[in-house]
Amino acid sequence: MKVLPLSGKHAVPDDRLPEKLKEAICLVKRDDGSMTLKIASPFINSIEVMEYERRLKANHISFGVDACTLSEIVEWNKSAESDIKNEEEPTEQTLQKKIIKILSDAVTQRASDVHIRLEKIVCTVYFRIDGKLAYYEEYAAEEGNRYVNCLYNTMCLHQSHASVSYAEPSDAKVREEYVQSLGLTGGRFASRPTSEGLLSVIRLITRRGRALSLNALGLTAPQEAALERAISKPTGVLFFTGPMGSGKSTLVQVISELMTQRDKGLHLVTVENPVESPIKGAVQTALGPKEEWWQAVKSLMRLDINCIVIGEVRDHLSATAAMEVAQTGHYVLTTLHTTHPVDTIARLKSLQVDNDFISDAALITCLVGQRLAPKLCPHCKKRYLEHKNDILPVFQGLIETFCQTSRVYLKNTGDCKHCEGKGVKGRVGIFEVIEVDAEWMRRYHERGKTHAYDYWYQKGGQTLCENTLRLINEGRIDPVMAHKEVCNLDRDFMVFTEDIREKSQHHRRASNESI
After folding, report:
1. Phi/psi of residue 203, each to 5°?
2. Cα separation of 164 and 152, whole Å?
3. Domain ranges for the chain
4. Rounded to 5 degrees, what angle do the CA atoms 232, 236, 308 make?
5. Residue 91 belongs to what H/E stretch?
6. How far is it, in rounded angstroms, from Cα 245 to Cα 231?
7. If we measure between CA atoms, which residue out of 464, 510, 514, 457 comes closest to residue 489?
8. What stretch or stretches form a coiled coil here (predicted)?
9. 3-state helix, strand, coil in the chain (%, to 5)
10. Residue range 228-244: average pLDDT?
11. Is CATH 3.40.50.300 what the domain over 214-514 is classified as, yes or no?
12. How far is CA 207 from the centre of its chain?
């Protein structure tokens, strides 16, 4: 049990109290986190006390009220003053050890990011595990503020400000010496002011323990074949698309490593922000503190390269630079933020890339879309047919219309020791690979995106929706989570006409018969 001071540097909330209230009330926080406002009986209905209660509620503090004698309140407040006087300011080394402990626990729990939410009263830390935020720990606001400032000011480099800004976004890179022992290759710090304080996120950049195959990532055999054909060409741009955190960078790394392993004489150079997992056979470079992507690409062109990996195309200059590199006889792998790969051309148009570039199938060779879906825990997942009433009717309708219900499993949140009661553990990639040819380009520019997409699908293209349904029917992912977070289960039904769907099935049947 702890008494929280009501005035001064550590005040809760942080504003001044009338003098006569200092000996009349105190705020007590119990071990279970609940709070009680203790009020001397003569003051319990005073205007000043009611105003203070209003301010506590305005600061989103939940509390109960307890009437006490004046002497009891005096003793409580003396206890608070004594605690403050005895409280020692932690050293820089102590703070750094605590931050490293947080990062270490995040790595142990397979987190991809650490979120630090600093508010007026409290600081809460979350880990992003398998795509979801999970509560880790809570601190007093002042303690959390020390952690954020120590991390940014003493454990980072390339800071965008001299110290963490509470008025505008801040960015920095965590120094390697603080994360290498944790099995990380780096960390990226970013913060942004909020209405309550500051949100800081540390992206944990992990080192892959072994080389991965395309199949291990979740690509199907036809998708692997399409990618193999794309990377076997002498020039072109291969775009990897999807939302943030969908695994684009990992796929780029795997393909880059595949290319350098097969051709030892290939000079493949990357520009990343920051450099992530090591790529065997590649020369990896980091985007400079004040360097733009297009500037980095222009610089690399003077280094006698065969293939270049560009961490991100994000504006007109970087997009144009990527296309110019391919036009001059080089191969380019890069990422682009779009919802679906078929939207890549429209996205490049919005970046004002020259039409000659975006209509040339010899330049834009392949478009890859990707998502990551949490895998069901094999030890506790539950059969859909036995537990379908656990989910909303709208999801029941989708599952029974588009899935093989006898093979579907649902997430089970309980006491499973294997997944710590989350129902999921690890993630699997779900892909859509559009191999671009001249006919696809002609249809896109003459008749629009829909006709180009229909053409690809009729030729046997596997959609994101189709691969999502496949994993659901294999009992590997939860259909409700997949519909909400990966791809709506009825997307292909909504996007393609019945005639197009039938032509696609006919093409697949013919292909299977010929094998």
Report:
1. -80, 125
2. 7
3. 2-82, 92-206, 214-514
4. 90
5. none
6. 24
7. 464
8. none
9. 40, 25, 35
10. 92
11. yes
12. 17
Verdict on whether the full-model pTM lies above 0.85: no
What is the spatial distance between Cα 415 and Cα 419, in angstroms, rounded to a whole number? 9
pLDDT at 83 over 70: no
**pLDDT at residue 9 above 50?**
no
The amino acid occupying position 329 is G
Structure tokens, 360: 């040339």
- How many helices (H) and strands (E) the chain has is answered by 19, 20
At 429, list the tokens: 């990639």
Alpha-carbon distance 321 to 354, whole Å? 11
pLDDT for residue 81 is more than 70? no
What are the contacts of 242-247 at 24+ separation with CB within 8 A? 242/337, 242/338, 242/369, 242/370, 242/371, 243/337, 243/339, 243/371, 244/337, 245/112, 245/128, 245/131, 245/372, 246/370, 246/371, 246/372, 247/217, 247/370, 247/371, 247/372, 247/427, 247/429
> Which 8-state DSSP code applies to residue 362?
T
d(CA 170, CA 193): 9
Residue 93: both structure tokens together:
């080394």
Please tell me the CATH code under which domain 92-206 is placed.
3.30.450.90
- For residue 70, the Cα-to-chain-centroid distance in whole angstroms is 52
Tokens standing for residue 374? 């949490």
Residue 43: what pLDDT?
Answer: 82
- Residue 29 scores a pLDDT above 90: no
Give the integer Cα–Cα distance in Å for 157 and 178: 12
Mean pLDDT (the chain) is 88
CA torsion sign, 298 to 243 to 192 to 156? Answer: negative
pLDDT in tens, 84-121: 555 556 888 999 999 999 999 999 999 999 999 999 88
pLDDT tens profile 487-496: 999 999 999 9
Q: What is the pLDDT of residues 35-64, one digit of tens each?
A: 888 888 888 888 888 888 888 888 778 888
Q: Which CATH class is domain 2-82?
A: alpha beta
Residues whose CB is less than 8 angstroms from the CB of residue 211 and which lie 6 or more positions away in sequence, other chains included? 254, 257, 261, 280
> What are the residues facing 370 on neighbouring strands?
431
Alpha-carbon distance of 403 to 387, in angstroms, equals 15
Place of tokens 């076997």: 232
Q: Average pLDDT of 72-76?
A: 77
Give the pair of three-digit tokens for residue 21. 């209230």
